[in-house]
Amino acid sequence: MFIQKNIQNLSIKNLPIKEWPESERPREKLLNNGPSSLGDAELLAIFIRTGIPGKTALDIAREALLDAGGLRALLNLSSIDLCQLKGIGTAKYVQFQAGLELGRRYLMEQMVKGDAISNPQVSRDYLTLQLRDKPYESFFAMFLDSKHRVIHHQELFRGTIDTASVPVREVVKEALKHNAAAMIVAHNHPSGVAEPSAADKALTDTLYLALGMVGVKLLDHFVVGDSEVISFAEMGALS
Question: Are residues 163 and 207 in the same domain?
């Protein structure tokens, strides 16, 4: 069976994807088995759609992933760098960015419709998409109503995150502006290490007290690293 399958794969390698057996085509696999059944290259091939002479869309996807160093690295390339990859142009860059933005908006809609606290994983996923790959430190805030539904969200500051660079007064001002009953804040560590620093802890304590004085509860402060998101609330460090 193993030998037979390899022979089949070799026989279809140089054929256009539309001439492959249905079970091997990325779009048909997705329709029949769901998107989780596809590998990174197969998912990318669906966006790429068409090949070039001598290469299928799947070939182009595999080579792009190899050249970029993986899916995340590929999707973080600038339009100039991405378009230097063989078989990928401006239209593909636009499609990739549109797909990422749809993911962000989907997660935000999930939070807006529900309780940001009862489903913290949605908040984690959204904040990871927003912050993880920024080359600078970004301080992000979500303003919540009394039922902990998101009513507004925005990047408030960028640069080194500590009590000196994040004017607590401005955070309080924004909370009152949006009539927030509660807040979740987050920032990223471009170094990739999510472990909160002493400055992070001092800022969290100051924000908690300052917001509390105007009736706004700080529900959590997330620190987003490369492969981990740390929650002050889960650490029991909000008081």
Answer: yes
Q: How many CA atoms lie within 13 A of 210 on its CB side?
A: 19
Same structural domain, 129 and 69 = no
Q: What pTM was computed for the model? A: 0.62
Verify that 162 and 217 share a domain, yes or no: yes
Q: pLDDT by residue (tens digit) across 151-178?
A: 898 999 887 765 557 889 999 999 999 9
Lowest-pLDDT range of 64-73, 119-128, 142-151? 119-128
161's CB contacts (< 8 A; 6+ apart) are: 137, 139, 187, 199, 200, 203
Cβ count near 145 (within 10 Å): 14
On whether residue 106 sits in a domain, the answer given is no
Which pLDDT score is estimated for 14?
Answer: 59
CB distance 176 to 225 below 8 Å: no
Q: Do 68 and 123 lie in a common domain?
A: no
Tell me the angle at which helices 198-213 and 168-177 cross, rounded to the nearest 10 degrees: 40
Q: Average pLDDT over the chain, rounded to whole?
A: 83
Residue 225, domain extent: 116-235
CB 82 within 8 A of CB 74: yes
Whether 10 and 71 share a structural domain: yes
- Contact (Cβ atoms closer than 8 angstroms) between residue 100 and residue 108: no
